[in-house]
Specification:
Blueprint: H1 2-22, E1 33-34, E2 40-41, E3 44-50, E4 59-65, E5 70-71, E6 74-76, E7 80-93, E8 99-102, E9 106-109, E10 115-119, E11 125-131, E12 135-137, H2 143-153
Antiparallel strand pairs: 1-3, 2-5, 3-4, 4-11, 6-12, 7-8, 7-9, 7-10, 7-11
Length: 156
Amino acid sequence: MKNFFIALITLFSLSVYSQAEDYELSSYLEEGFKAPNINYIGEAWLNPLIRSDESLPYNITKATFKANSTLNWHKHTDQQVLIVVSGKGYYQEKGKQPIVIRKGDILKCTANTEHWHASSKEQDVTYLAIYKGETEWTDVLTQEAYDKVSSLLDTD
């Protein structure tokens, strides 16, 4: 009987191993890697879930910005979609008022629209960014400007 259970456990282990070998499997739940602090203030983590190739023309990246972190102003050569999956943050397009973004929100930013997005001062924000094309960094979003947005929006 003991040998039967050992054989069963061995077969189960091999089947799990062979299943993982047959598929390109990654996890949305992984935090990813800490992004180099080049175009943002604070701390950001990126998990590149899907990379574009000849059969799939877009990327999907899970991005987590720790509380009090923000991206600089930028734009994309193609549209970008942000799906907020947890937390609270801010979003602003050039010439428009900033808004609060929360879990469940979906933002569609058209091509070449200058914008920035960030966590709130007190909460992390995690979103899925769906995009293709290139990112052009335009202006620095200063800590002072971010703090002003935070004081304006954090009334709840």
